[in-house]
Fold this sequence. Notes:
The chain is an alpha/beta fold. It has helices spanning about 25-40, 45-50, 55-65, 70-85, 95-105, 115-125, 150-160, 170-180, and strands spanning about 10, 15, 25, 90-95, 110, 135, 165-170, 185-190, 200, 205-210, 215-220.
Amino acid sequence: xxxxxxxxxxxxxxxxxxxxxxxxxxxxxxxxxxxxxxxxxxxxxxxxxxxxxxxxxxxxxxxxxxxxxxxxxxxxxxxxxxxxxxxxxxxxxxxxxxxxxxxxxxxxxxxxxxxxxxxxxxxxxxxxxxxxxxxxxxxxxxxxxxxxxxxxxxxxxxxxxxxxxxxxxxxxxxxxxxxxxxxxxxxxxxxxxxxxxxxxxxxxxxxxxxxxxxxxxxxxxx
Length: 222
């Protein structure tokens, strides 16, 4: 993994935060549930995992089962969301996530996740993390990442120009969504390193946040 070794300073008016893989390590449950789904449908689990991260479940299904009616994908996704919400075994915070979120109190930021309200609430609670006041969840958008809709809605909710937002993401779909929204992207973790974010960190212990005199945010990354 190529993490940044030279400290990088970014300035922003708001931060938009993905959840899974960025604030919360839910890989154990994601692997369990999606590999079971792959087996039921006669698909290779490794190939499924290459596209499952970052997207809403029905969007992943549409990629993997392109001939299946979307109504079936939506119904299947609802069942899987219930499974995922009930299964928080192994869900833990990404290193540094608690102090990082605490440092954002009073600063413009939002959660932008492909999870729905129930799943995001369950996983953040299981990881012992506080939920940001502003949350863009699956219910808020008509299109899943890599579509930029979620990030653009987050910026709009905060009243900030997208170009003045910095996204924190781990997945290919999420990084592509942030870039499509015209935002800079801090990649978190090994997955992010393959998808060319503006800068990549091992975890959130490598990020320090400082409020600026004009109400902005200064990020020290690395």
